[in-house]
Amino acid sequence: MNVNHLDVIGYREDLLKKIFDSSKTLSLDLMLNSGKHEINREDRTIFNDLYWKGFFPVGHVLNFFSSNFHAGFKKRFFKEDDQYAGITSDTDGFIHAKNSLEERENDQLGKHILLKYTEIPWRGFYDIFKVISDKLLIGKVFIGAYPHGIEVFTFCMVREFTFEDMSVEDHRKLYDSAKVPAKEQIEGVWDMAAVSNNNHRTGVARLDFDVKPDGRIEGRYQFMNLVQGQTRVELTEDELQMHDFTPMHDEIRTLDNEYMIGKWCSAKKEIFGPLSAGLLHFEPTSDGQTRFCFYYTLKRSNLDRLPAPGVLDRVMRQKLGVGMTFEEEMVGRYSPGELRDSQELEPDQGVHCQFNVKIIIADLDEFIASEEHRAELNGTIQFAEFNEDRNVVCPLEDGSYFNYLRKNPDTEEREMRYHIRFKHRDKLYLFNGTKFLQKDHKGDVAEILEDYTTLYCRITQDDNHVQIGAAKLKFRTTEDIKSIASMLEFGLSFEVTGTKSLWKKISARNKMNAFTMHFIFDEYNPFGL
Q1: Which residues in 41-76 are b (16+ Cβ under 10 Å) and which e?
Q2: How far apart, in whole angstroms, are the C-alpha atoms of residue 366 and residue 9?
Q3: DSSP state for residue 525 in the 8-state scheme
Q4: pTM exceeding the 0.85 threshold for the entire prediction
């Protein structure tokens, strides 16, 4: 029967039995291991003839236990004193059961290979093999005395497999031969899969590397689609390193533009020897100590950015078909003249300035899904003095708008932008304000509040775009009784439009909050580095 050994790894037991029953075995000599080990990076395959790698059938309870306990099995076959012999072991290295092998034939099974376990406590078991090809064995496990034992399950074994089924030793060889990645190679989202002592890599996380125009690399992780945070990224002469809030760190190298290989390692320890168990692997260091690591691979994802973590993602994906409005008051100082940078304004410089606006989101679903996150503005803007007139109050003109968490294409950082159009003495002016939402320091609550409540503004004439002044405004929070009242009014001003359903109104507020919280945890990582 012509079958592909790489496909058989993913077969259910009924298909394995069908191959076994319909196939004639090849020679026992094909089962002997040569010790050869080759890695084909282009095909993403590994030929490992140190032993045969065993796979429980997909859907079988043993496959479930193997995956959850991160352990598998293997067999090595050789000749000893002109006799065929073998060793069956688990991939953690705790079991070493000696075997004998011989060719047999009977009416029920036809020609086959009998594997006996020669030592207690394994003598009550035996295996029946058929050699399907030089890279594939199909075996059956029996309990009892040959040939009258009770069949337990059918399995397959291969000596060539894909990177999806690499072993710990395969990972080590790949890592040692891999290169330091360049910045342009790591940009994007990567799917992480753990390499363990079971037979299949297990998807555990995603990493996102964002190379900024100034050369900085921002790293983010998302674990099991539940926990998200930031890491500090460094490119060394040996590897790419990532450091997070744990005492461990990542070391990553690249095979090519689509595949990287890494490990998450502890500080050096002296109390363990080099061993491997499940997901946890101990390895010697260059100075004679030992450390423990988790091994993993990284494949370039088809995602262009990390999705929101589980619960937030479900909330944000809801299609509600509603709108939302809320009101905001920003208060500060306006300084006329050629001051280019409003961040340089002193607290007492200039004259009083404020705006009171209603932010109108016509369609909340579209607002969150779009790149611009745009809403319309109406309201008023006030100056204690403007163009030599005192106590100037101007209504906002049509075309005034607000962007929430819009990415600046030049800096690739998120911003809140207010584009306010107003007329004074029949001349149109533009009041453009920006809140810069990026982690510059600790990313703690104080920094988040400062970024979210501080607006830097530039005022120009519409016809020639010549700057006539600058302003710095604040959304006041707890400075005084009046500011506390203003903050309460802001919270109470949120209104969901286009529905009378209480459930939809609650869901809309939750969706807006989830959108905000996702950004805050993604950018500021308030509980991490």
Answers
A1: eeeebbebbebbbbbbbeebeebeebbebbbbbbbb
A2: 45
A3: -
A4: no
- Main-chain dihedrals φ then ψ at residue 397, nearest 5 degrees: -85, 160
Is the peptide bond prior to 213 cis by the omega test (within 30 degrees of 0)? no
User: What's the token pair of residue 352?
Assistant: 């009083």
Distance (Å, whole) CA 53 – CA 199: 8
Which range, of 5-9, 87-91, 475-479, averages the lowest pLDDT? 475-479
CA atoms within 13 A of residue 174's CA, in its CB half-sphere: 32
Cα 354 to chain centroid distance, Å, stands at 42
> Strand locations in 346-426, DSSP E?
351-361, 374-386, 389-395, 401-407, 414-424
Take residue 337 and report the two structure tokens written for it: 């003249």
| Per-residue pLDDT reduced to its tens digit, 356-385 | 999 999 999 999 999 999 999 999 999 999
Q: What are the extents of the domains in the chain? A: 5-161, 166-307, 315-524
DSSP 193: E
The CATH code of domain 5-161 reads: 2.40.128
Burial class, 341, CB count within 10 angstroms (exposed 0-12 / middle 13-18 / buried 19+): exposed
- Determine the topology of domain 166-307 in CATH: Lipocalin (2.40.128)
166-307 has the same fold as 5-161: yes
pLDDT digits (tens, 9 = 90+) for 7-50: 998 899 999 999 999 999 999 999 999 999 999 999 999 999 99
